[in-house]
TrEMBL record:
Similarity field: Belongs to the purine-cytosine permease (2.A.39) family.
One term under GO cellular component: plasma membrane
Primary localization: membrane
Species in which this protein is naturally found: Clonostachys rhizophaga
Record membrane topology: Multi-pass membrane protein
Descriptive protein name: Allantoin permease
Length: 322
């Protein structure tokens, strides 16, 4: 596009058409839409990282993801600016842009762009949506749903019932959808981060996570942590007026449209005032049998019970220290 336009267009010569608080909130809104697109990976990335050989392997994302996304964004801006010179309008949709390409070479280019776009969407949905949702359904109803069945259900639901062709019908509807993802998924990500890093201090009883009546059942039949429920409601409900105003600009909600997520602080405060003591452990537990004061202790996921047998490993260590 830059070759056809003889340059990068006028994008670099444009000046802001808004200023003050309007400009500031527009920047915040754009950032929210961008982060909303990553909200699914923020909440479900453990479905993939748990298979890594080393925990530090995820650090490579901090180098590649921002760089690649910035590069693609810049290329998209340059291409859109050049389109204005060639076609007389800004075209943000790659598929609509490809429809303007005529002739044998243009149709060939449109074909490869379409195939690339299709492969990209399949890869994105598999990693960000389908696998995670299928895992959740298989965990909730393992008797009736396995991973394959969950994938089919997710594909039908996300691919047809949510009418995605309407979501991408315009830039405004796409941004509103991305922002809506953040309204509901950002509080979940904040609760998960606060629970692991602040409340639990990275000490987790791993076997107890898979026990119905373990320490993480929170004393309820449904295994629900009421602190997380409250934090979720406090973090998401105040954002709903802003979402409604984005969908229907005619609604006048005043400053309510600028409410930010406060889920992290709310969950942390509730867990500090009313801590769930039964879920707290001094260090992360990975094994069913652990060593406490030289004794083998069966980790029942709640309090732990002594087996009454001394650990040979513990006795060996003590002998070596002596």
């Amino acid at each position: 596009m830059s070759r056809l336009a003889g340059g990068t267009g006028d994008i670099w010569d444009q000046h802001p058409t808004v200023s003050g608080s309007t400009k500031a909130w527009l920047i915040v809104s754009s950032m929210s839409s961008m982060t909303g697109g990553w909200a699914t990976m923020a909440t479900n990335v453990a479905d993939f990282t748990r298979h890594m050989k080393r925990p530090k392997g995820v650090y490579w994302q901090t180098l590649f993801v921002p760089g690649i996304c910035t590069l693609l964004g810049v290329l998209g801006i340059i291409s859109t600016s050049a389109e204005k010179v060639v076609y007389g309008e800004y075209i943000w949709d790659p598929l609509e842009l490809a429809s303007h390409w005529d002739g044998p070479s243009g149709r060939a280019a449109a074909f490869f762009v379409g195939v690339s776009w299709c492969v990209a969407q399949i890869g994105t949905n598999l990693s960000a949506n389908v696998i995670s949702c299928a895992n959740d359904m298989a965990s909730l109803w393992p008797k009736y749903i396995n991973i394959k069945c969950g994938v089919v259900i997710t594909t039908v639901t996300a691919g047809w019932i949510t009418v995605p062709w309407k979501i991408i019908s315009s830039a405004a509807s796409l941004l509103n959808f991305m922002g809506a993802l953040g309204v509901f998924l950002a509080p979940i990500a904040a609760i998960l981060a606060c629970d692991y890093w602040v409340v639990k201090r990275r000490a987790i009883d791993v076997p107890a996570l898979y026990r119905k009546n373990g320490r993480y059942s929170y004393g309820t039949r449904a295994g629900t942590n009421w602190r997380a429920v409250v934090a979720m409601l406090v973090g998401s409900v105040p954002s709903l007026p802003g979402l409604a105003a984005a969908v229907n600009p005619s609604l006048d909600i005043g400053g309510a449209k600028n409410i930010f997520d406060i889920t992290f602080l709310v969950y942390g405060a509730l867990s500090w005032v009313w801590p769930a003591h039964e879920t707290l452990v001094e260090a992360t537990l990975h094994e069913e049998v652990i060593i406490v004061d030289g004794m083998e202790v069966t980790n029942d996921g709640l309090h732990g019970t002594h087996t009454g047998a001394k650990s040979v490993q513990a006795e060996t260590i003590k002998a070596a220290e002596a």
